[in-house]
């Protein structure tokens, strides 16, 4: 909480017990006033008789929780207001008699409230929470503390508070992170610590902005360097630093909004690389009149800033944002004197909500914008998108899943507009240190499925690059200058199925409970719709089967490609030095070829090998063997040689591949001819591979092996030249 009372006693004096005579006029419910602008909804929460300190926070359902110091009852106690039930309900917090003020609120992941405030009797910093179901109040620190406190919760739900010790004029900090309250002084250099504001980053490091009243400077403290606290002066140009509000911006660097008393301006400071504060990164956002009191600053996941503040000159509630890339300011409420004690929060779509005080009517008021710009131009009536669906890669509980989200847009998407996908509670979206981001998202569109145009995504929108970011359960896709045509089919892929540019490496985990979950499509492109997602106990059924290994192998001997029975033989006849005797496959001549049939489902295929009783044609009578001189050689008429080669290899399914020594007639001239100089392979006495099925199953493989022989004029005569060839098929399963 970073608001201060305007009328306060000296920081060095203990306030006396005042008797306030209060006229209580309480208005309950949700009384909607005529909006100041068409794009705003302004609600009066209740009426009080004096000014309030106000602090606003939203829960995961975008419901508002407000704490203030209204005169809801006497004795004076913090007032807690929420619309979580659907209508505004207001109650007192605790039983303290008289609070000084400084109420600040934070909401945890369960939607429970955590509140700090300062008590006058006794003088204490108080902490209240309804986490147990009823309000429990305890003491965080004792001493004379002035009105303003600021509260934040870390990732474990532990409380961190910054506040001003009016007795010693110091900035103090308290936390219950250790299990009990510990309070320390962070800065005691002069009168320092008023208007403090606290923020915690994703690594649970604390940042605090505050005012140095002695020197009129904006100061800053953090423990981002290895947990060690450091203090620095941010801005010392004139009297600056009242009404500060701090947040974590782009790259994890701090940003601060604050009031320039000297010039009456709203100012904004941004930390630079190296966590330093440069004068060039400080600017006046609004200098029209006297503006900038009661600032309240929030940032979105892209580091864009949203600020509510008070226009003193006109008595208006004002708003500034750099969401579009440059600062734009607007007036949210100008009905009477309004806008003091502002407190801003962003919903899951980065739409601002602001709680503030109406001085004229002594009302606590609440404004809801319709878009991030809080434009005064009303959007067109919302229309539903059509043909919506989300295809999950897995629907089982507690399982990682990809999402393919599809819908048809009626009016298309214009430049600068957003599309949002709100994942239901229970779906777990990866956060730091490895968050789901734009690299895990694809966006495409087209007239029909299958004809989409892929769009370029980045962390933020710029020109033709669309911004894609995740905050809580909401995926927001923002256009820079790009558009999507009306009646287009839009496809958003989220998870490892995203493959455009970079393949995604993060997925969303399904809820742990079986149920129907509702996903919502929305955004400023002004179309909406819901998608039902069914999450089941188990989405898989195991199917088992066995395929028996098989291999069939057959040989045939013939002068044409045909099936023959046993016994198988090849008769070379009388060899002559004037002729190259060869097997035939063309139904000509008398020398048979050897044909092979092989079929197998062996996963690594099969090999067919040949083994001879001798290395060629042997004669016992002459002790002579007709053979090749090497494993592979040429043969021609008049040479004393014999060899084999493959003339063809075919298969219905799969491929047969010849061994290099018996290469099918590509270069070896292995044809059914009695002439030429073919290259043939040697008959080995060990198994020599003829061909394989290329390392894979094959169906109806068929190969033809030709034998080619010749003799020299000096080859000894005999009639008992011969050999026995054995063929083996081996499958690897």
Q: Can you describe what's shown?
A:
This protein is mainly beta. Helices cover 0% and strands 47% of the residues. The protein is built from no helices and 56 strands. The chain has a seven-stranded mixed β-sheet, with no helix packed on it. A hairpin with a 6-residue loop joins strand 25 (316-321) and strand 26 (328-333). The two termini are 73 Å apart.
User: Which percent band covers the strand fraction?
Assistant: over 45%
The level of helicity is under 10%
In what order do the strands lie side by side in the largest sheet?
Answer: 30-43-42-34-39-38-37
Average pLDDT works out at 88
Number of strands: 56
Our count of helices gives 0
User: Which spans of ≥5 residues are poorly predicted at pLDDT below 50?
Assistant: 1-38
The description of the largest β-sheet is:
7 strands, mixed
What's the shape? rod-shaped
Instruction: Calculate the terminal CA-CA distance, rounded to whole Å.
Output: 73 Å
Report the C-alpha radius of gyration, rounded.
43 Å
Q: Which structural class should the secondary elements be placed in?
A: mainly beta
Please render the helix and strand layout as text:
Elements: E1 31-32, E2 40-47, E3 54-58, E4 64-68, E5 79-82, E6 89-92, E7 99-107, E8 113-119, E9 124-129, E10 136-142, E11 145-153, E12 159-165, E13 170-175, E14 182-187, E15 192-200, E16 206-212, E17 217-225, E18 228-235, E19 240-248, E20 254-260, E21 265-270, E22 282-286, E23 291-299, E24 305-311, E25 316-321, E26 328-333, E27 338-346, E28 352-358, E29 363-369, E30 383-384, E31 386-392, E32 400-401, E33 403-409, E34 418-422, E35 441-446, E36 453-455, E37 457-458, E38 466-471, E39 474-478, E40 488-494, E41 508-509, E42 515-522, E43 527-535, E44 551-558, E45 581-582, E46 593-600, E47 606-612, E48 617-619, E49 624-626, E50 632-634, E51 641-650, E52 657-658, E53 679-681, E54 688-692, E55 698-710, E56 725-731
